[in-house]
Amino acid sequence: MLKTTSKLLVGAALIAGLATTASAAKTYKWKLATTWGPTLSPFIDAPNNMAKMVEEMSDGRLQIRVDASNKHKSAFGILDMVKGGQYDMGHSASYYWKGKDINTLPFTTMPFGMTAPEQYAWFYHGGGLELMQKAYKKHKVLSFPGGNTGNQMGGWFRKEINSLEDLKGLKMRIPGFAGEVMAKLGLTVTNIAPGELYTSLERGTIDALEWVGPGMDITMGFHKIAPYYYTGWHEPATELQFLVNERSFKKLPKDLQQILLTAMKVSAYDMYIQNYDMSATAWSKIESDYPNIKIKTFPKEVMDAMKKANDELLVEKAEGNPLLKEVLDSQKAYQKKARKWTEMSDYLYLKDNL
Predict the structure, then answer these.
(1) Integer Cα distance of 351 and 334 in angstroms
(2) Beta strand 155-157 with 294-296: parallel, antiparallel or unpaired?
(3) Which residue of 149, 270, 274, 321 has the smallest Cβ count within 10 Å?
(4) SS3 200
């Protein structure tokens, strides 16, 4: 009996070993769809760098093909394509899905909200990542930070904004919660795919737009049409996202899952510092290379109205929506805690050294 049991155990061990070896040798080929065109750096660089890291770290066992928007032709269809399994992954921005699910909105950024370091701390140490998975669970996808732009500029306008009256009736491309704030102030708000922004502004389809910051904006040429460039308020920490089909993820061996998670985290932060460098470099050349750009800050009357509209909308949206309220409350509490240190470590340092 002991000999028989011993043989069975040895046999089971051999089978388990063969299964492990087969799993390790198997190659997984995934597809990733992005909202961005093939040359839109640094947004497109984040998924490209992630895919390269994954392939190298896995010794080719996990290969991810990145399809830019010009290939799949659905810049704002990323969530649906990943959810439906046409793609294993996506790279986009969570606030694009607010029309489908309002709970996805806060995970990109919120007006007058956290800065990028504060928001990253919230994601990874303040419960934000867990709340994001909770919000996306119904869609059967996982969502992870995908690269931050830092504080974005407030937009390009054809005319100078001196009062609230100057805003009324303008047509503006501005997504997310900020779009709802602007709509409350009397603007006609729209969202336009990145590849169509310049032509929309040039043809007068829109009167103003916000995109990112000088590193990305100036190469788009917006200043040639709308020279008034306003400082930011609406997107202090715009985090892009990696979407992952839950079933695809669960099929990966544990080591490949960890490789994927690590590569997403590294490429996201790398995009943040890449974009920071692009904007710092562009800003240093604005006066000499682009003297026609007129840097402006919204008047106090306008800023006060934006804050008031934002506060009213937050209450309105959270009412009767427990998950959204949970996310917004979590962000508000973490911002309050982190802002004390941000003021001490960054604001007071800059105040005394500029």
Answers:
(1) 24
(2) unpaired
(3) 321
(4) helix
| Confidence check: pLDDT of 351 > 90 | yes
And the tokens for 53? Answer: 């890291």
Cite the DSSP H helix spans in the chain: 2-25, 45-57, 69-72, 78-84, 116-125, 128-136, 164-167, 176-184, 197-202, 214-220, 246-251, 254-284, 286-289, 300-318, 322-342, 348-353
Judge residue 68's burial from the number of C-beta atoms within 10 Å of its C-beta, 0-12 exposed, 13-18 middle, 19 or more buried. buried
For residues 196 and 220, give the distance between their C-alpha atoms in angstroms, rounded to a whole number: 11
37 φ/ψ angles, rounded to the nearest 5 degrees: -75, 170
pLDDT of 328 higher than 90:
yes
Helix (H), strand (E) at residue 86 = none
Query: Is the whole model's pTM more than 0.85, yes or no?
Result: yes
Judged against a pLDDT cut of 70, whether residue 257 lies above it is answered with: yes
**What are the structural domains of the chain?**
25-148+237-278 (3.40.190.170), 155-234+290-318 (3.40.190.10)
- Burial class from Cβ neighbours inside 10 Å (0-12, 13-18, 19+) for residue 224 reads middle
Q: Which residues contact 111 (CB under 8 A, 6 or more apart)?
A: 177, 178, 181, 233, 234, 235, 306, 310
Q: Model confidence over 74-96: pLDDT tens digits?
A: 999 999 999 999 999 999 999 99
Whether 294 contacts 230, CB under 8 Å = no
Residue 6: pLDDT band by 50, 70, 90 thresholds? Answer: very low
- Taking the C-alpha atoms of residue 79 and residue 192, their distance in angstroms, rounded to an integer, is 17
Looking at residue 354, its pLDDT comes to 85
Query: What is the average pLDDT score of the chain?
Result: 94
pLDDT digits (tens, 9 = 90+) for 188-234: 999 999 999 999 999 999 999 999 999 999 999 999 999 999 999 99
- Residue 153 DSSP class: P
